[in-house]
Amino acid sequence: MTTRAALFGAVLFCALSAGFATAASGAPVSKEQVVQLQRKWFDLLVAANWTQAADMIAPDFLWIHPTGRVDTKQSRLDLLVKGPQPPWTSIDTKDIRASVFNDSAMVTSEVSWASAPAAGVTTPRVLHLRVTTVWVNQEGTWRVARLQATTIP
């Protein structure tokens, strides 16, 4: 089994396992609402609003990079507070697909993740990714628990 397949399997297992849990409060969200949550979170990341973005992240959050590197909530926030280098300018999504499972939800989309030009470079860097996020309802608050990014060739 490849590393990428193993990581995808782990994300899928977490999403399905979380779907069988019952939160203490809060109603299930619709597909449209979870897509709006993700848009809000991406907008906060671009705006460098780390406090509000952190509030939308589950304590056991994992950010799985296209390289296979894994960040925890704390390690990712530590890097973000220093500021992405160069700063992010936009996160645009298309081909958005969402599924809701009681107290969890998954969103997958094609993402163009852009940053300002690095020092000495004239063009911005744009990553073309397929991103899957897992959202969980924790005591009535929806938070992102996983982000898995795969490079689109």
Characterization of this structure:
The protein is an alpha+beta fold. It has one domain (3-151): Nuclear Transport Factor 2, Chain: A (Roll), CATH 3.10.450.50. Helix content is 32%, strand content 41%. A six-stranded mixed beta sheet has the order 2-1-6-5-4-3, sandwiched between helices. The protein starts with a helix and ends with a strand.
Anisotropy-based shape: globular
Number of helices: 4
**Main β-sheet, spatial strand arrangement:** 2-1-6-5-4-3
And the CATH topology? Nuclear Transport Factor 2, Chain: A
How many separate structural domains? 1
What's the level 1 CATH class? Alpha Beta
Approximate strand percentage: 35-45%
CATH architecture: Roll
Number of strands: 6
Mean pLDDT, as a whole number?
Answer: 83
Helix-strand pattern: HHHEEHEEEE
Assign the structural class, choosing from mainly alpha, mainly beta, alpha/beta, alpha+beta, or little secondary structure.
alpha+beta
How would a textbook summarize the main sheet? Answer: 6 strands, mixed
